[in-house]
Design brief:
There is one protein chain. The chain is an alpha/beta fold and 387 residues long. It has a domain of 92 residues. 47% of the residues lie in helices and 10% in strands. The protein is built from 14 helices and seven strands. Helix 1 crosses helix 12 and helix 6 runs antiparallel to helix 7. The chain is extended, with a radius of gyration of 29 Å.
Length: 387
């Protein structure tokens, strides 16, 4: 740890010279050998009690109780930081509610019921809503965005979970299904370049402003190459072109190729790749030709990453962002209510975006809870970037 992060220093000096045994002065050594131990002191909850006293008038004997002043006496028995910790445990680190109750008792020294914990989740979800809305606006205005979807369950019923991710923010939304009519309202004005797989539900986005994920195509071509007969030959050919595309891309990203040289080298590869797809369609091979025909239907979205700086050829960004949600679903089997869905969406949106903005997640959640309980303005996830 740097010196400014150290709370206590213990300086040890030799008492006498090992050569002549004369006493030595205590002179600090700038190159002293350093040993550190970090400890957490026992956590003791800090409880404040407000008392509304009733006083008897000495003149008329009427008893008057101190007024209940809204805003001075908190509406919740749990403070902002404690509420933020509760939401962090269940909504970001995905502890089950019973495990979270046990952890709060063992580590923080706070005893809370399951019902109270659920109420705290609802309060925090509402407190962070302005920041979540801000993140959605940030994503909507981005020039390049990645999207991906997966299944989600509410009370055992299958639903859909989708993410939109940029370099600055990530947002999540749980919706009834993954149909075009359901998804399109999430994407707002359809501004910028959308990087995705070939999901037909996303065809509302103009093909010339999309980028199809080549990592998905790579996996598809590997499956072709593992078959027998002509399918294997076609698969190996398409796989080789795809690997060459990635090789050129990595060389360009590493600075080994200039932009002009990269575009020039990609020109024949593009032509040969599309020719191979067309030949695969003509071969009329079950399970291969149809897929290749579908890829050619997305031809305008295959090479956006070559023509448009800042666009990547894969959708790995969105897949990494949604992975934590997928693991949560596998452990918890989803949520039980619409309120639970909103809590999950909001907390994951805040956590992923705050980390991209180099913000402490617990600190930001605490600021949101403090603002919700007073008159201060809700904090901004992007205040530092704007400054």
């Amino acid at each position: 740890m740097p010196e400014e992060k150290v709370n206590k220093f213990v300086d040890l000096f030799p008492q006498e010279c090992e050569n002549c045994w004369k006493p030595l002065p205590h002179v600090p050594d700038p190159l002293a050998k350093r040993y550190q131990q970090t400890e957490v002191p026992p956590i003791e909850p800090f409880t404040t009690e407000w008392r509304r006293h009733e006083v008897t008038c000495p003149c008329c004997k009427y008893r008057t109780r101190a007024s209940y002043i809204d805003g001075e006496i908190p509406a919740s028995p749990f403070g902002p930081r404690l509420m933020a910790i509760v939401a962090l445990l269940t909504g970001v680190y995905h502890l089950g509610r019973r495990r979270a109750v046990d952890l709060l008792a063992d580590v923080v020294g706070v005893h809370i019921s399951l019902g109270a914990l659920s109420t705290v989740e609802a309060r925090v979800s509402k407190a962070v809503q302005p920041a979540v809305d801000e993140a959605w606006k940030q994503v909507g205005n981005a020039e390049v965005k990645h999207t991906d979807g997966t299944t989600w369950y509410q009370a055992g019923a299958m639903m859909a979970l989708w993410t939109l991710a940029t370099s600055a923010a990530t947002v999540f939304k749980i919706v009834a299904d993954s149909t075009k009519s359901t998804l399109q309202p999430l994407y707002g004005a359809l501004q910028g370049i959308l990087v995705s797989d070939r999901a037909k539900a996303l065809n509302f986005w103009a093909m010339k402003h999309r980028q199809i994920c080549f990592a998905h195509l790579l996996r598809k071509f590997i499956s072709f190459a593992e078959r027998d007969g002509p399918a294997a030959r076609i698969g190996r050919q398409l796989l080789n072109y795809t690997l060459l595309i990635f090789e050129y891309w990595h060389d360009y990203k590493a600075g080994k190729l200039s932009r002009e040289m990269y575009v020039a080298w990609m020109t024949p590869v593009r032509r040969q790749f599309e020719t191979a797809l067309a030949q695969a369609v003509s071969a009329n091979i079950a399970g291969v030709s149809g897929s290749c025909a579908d890829i050619l239907e997305h031809q305008a979205a295959l090479w956006t990453f070559v023509n448009q700086p800042g666009v990547e050829p894969t959708n790995n960004h969105a897949e990494r962002e949604i992975r934590a949600f997928v693991l949560w679903r596998k452990r918890s089997f989803g949520t039980q209510s619409a309120r639970g869905n909103q809590f999950a969406e909001n907390l994951m949106t805040i956590a992923h975006t705050a980390r991209k903005q180099k913000r402490n997640v617990l600190g930001f959640l605490t600021e949101c809870c403090q603002a919700a309980g007073g008159t201060r303005r809700p904090p901004s996830l992007f205040a530092t970037a704007a400054a």
